[in-house]
Amino acid sequence: PPRSTLFPYTTLFRSSESITAPTLHWDAPLTREDGSRLYASDISGYRIYYRLRHTDNYEVISLSGDDITRYQLEGFPPGAYEFSITALDDSGLESQRSDPITVDLI
């Protein structure tokens, strides 16, 4: 089934502030696709989609809660990865995926 586009995608960033593993972080969306306000309490969680860049299939990490806006990339085997994120609202609607970012884990 097609995805419901609820609000604009979030922007995904990568930082290397951690000594052990890079961290993904993002800003929670503030508006729905129609321009109406999206409150933090309307967000039920996020999904991080990732894959090794030379593969076609994505894996998904589901995160619950509106207050989670970072994810440390621990436990990933070395490789060249692509990550994107979506937001979920309390009705289960999922946003469009963010623009992908690439992370080389060694």
Protein architecture, described:
The protein is mainly beta. The chain is 0% helix and 41% strand. It has strands spanning 12-15, 23-26, 43-52, 59-64, 70-72, 79-89, 101-105. The strands form 2 sheets. A 4-stranded antiparallel beta sheet has the order 4-3-6-7, with no helix packed on it. A hairpin with a 6-residue loop joins strand 3 (43-52) and strand 4. The chain is elongated. The N and C termini lie far apart (37 Å).
Provide a quick synopsis of the model.
This protein is mainly beta.
Order of strands, widest sheet: 4-3-6-7
Order of helices and strands: EEEEEEE
The percentage helix is under 10%
Low-confidence runs of at least 5 consecutive residues? 1-9
Q: Number of DSSP helices? A: 0
SSE layout and pairing:
Layout: E1 12-15, E2 23-26, E3 43-52, E4 59-64, E5 70-72, E6 79-89, E7 101-105
Antiparallel strand pairs: 1-2, 2-5, 3-4, 3-6, 6-7
